[in-house]
Design goal:
Layout lengths: L2 H16 L4 H20 L9 H13 L4 H20 L25 H9 L6 H16 L3 H5 L6 E2 L4 E5 L5 E5 L2 H13 L23 H14 L11 H12 L4 H8 L4 H21 L4
Antiparallel strand pairs: 1-2, 2-3
Helix pairs in contact: 2-4, 3-4, 6-8, 6-10, 10-12, 11-12
């Protein structure tokens, strides 16, 4: 391992252990830093020497390549973290300029209506092990407002059926406890009694398992949502891994939940992150008012 690779590995350890970044973020930053390294190598420049000129050319090239605004913003954020790390560790001197993040692309989220959620859940009706698993999985993801990765990594020991609570591990390995009651609890109990025993291997601690008894991954959750969504007649463009979490948050706000409580349920470190759902809801209502003939 050469010196540059050693510095980068130290940077990724810094992200993981000091900043508490998720493995998905670290994986994305690895790709971003590799792109930056290739860009610098093509121009005979050291990727550990970050200048205003070079970063400007890099971001301009991404725009020329028609990368999405979210990709460009993430790569700019990666470079900014990289520079801060290099300065903090003494690999380079501090500079007066800072990398400015491009404006984030605003998209109206594809929130599912409560009727669509009901159709999605009913698409799992059946007594086969995978039907029981998928109904329990979707009820839990929607009923508890979980990220796809949080749903995939749930363990049997995370559930307290008597107290009706669920321990969830979120971004940065932060834990939170959420209510686990009603239909979600009922469907998981049914899955545990009649579905999971036909899928499980004795050594598995994960709650949701594949048909071969292996632990599900984040990508598997997305495939389940997409497959069940098709069966429910929901357009593919309205389905994505966090659609149940975003729908959960919006539905609760519409029914009067306060932001602070929603922040705790979602596990957001900042209330500002939760506030985006109020903007989402207002945008959706604006579209409804402008489009519906009887609004």
């Amino acid at each position: 391992m050469n010196q540059r690779e050693s510095i980068q590995e130290t940077f990724f350890r810094h992200l993981r252990f000091e900043r508490g970044c998720s493995e998905n973020t670290i994986k994305a930053y690895r790709n971003d830093l590799s792109e930056w390294g290739r860009f610098c190598a093509d121009r005979g420049r050291d990727p550990a020497i970050v200048s205003r000129e070079t970063t400007g050319l890099f971001l301009k090239q991404l725009s020329t390549e028609k990368k999405s605004k979210s990709t460009i913003q993430r790569r700019a954020a990666c470079l900014r973290s990289w520079v801060r790390f290099l300065v903090a560790e003494g690999y380079c001197e501090d500079t007066e300029w800072r990398i400015t993040l491009p404006s984030r692309e605003k998209k109206l989220p594809a929130i599912l209506g409560e009727g669509e959620i009901e159709r999605l859940l009913r698409s799992c009706d059946g007594n086969e092990p995978l039907d029981l698993r998928d109904r329990a999985l979707l009820e839990t993801a929607y009923g508890c407002g979980l990220r796809a990765s949080e749903t995939a990594f749930l363990r049997l020991s995370d559930m307290d059926m008597q107290r009706g609570s669920l321990v969830v591990r979120g971004k940065g390995d932060r834990e939170r406890t959420v209510p686990f009651t009603g239909e979600a609890k009922h469907r998981v109990e049914k899955y545990l009694s009649a579905g999971r025993p036909l899928l499980s291997s004795d050594s598995s601690e994960r709650l949701f398992l594949s048909k071969t008894g292996k632990s599900l991954r984040r990508e598997d959750i997305w495939r389940i949502i997409r497959r069940r969504g098709r069966a429910a007649g929901i357009a593919a463009g309205r389905l994505y891994p966090h659609v149940l979490r975003h729908s959960f948050a919006t539905h609760l706000l519409r029914r009067g939940m306060d932001l602070r409580t929603l922040q705790e349920l979602l596990g957001h470190a900042s209330i500002a992150t939760t506030e985006k759902y109020t903007h989402f809801d207002m945008e959706l209502r604006d579209v409804y008012d402008a489009s519906h003939p009887r609004a």
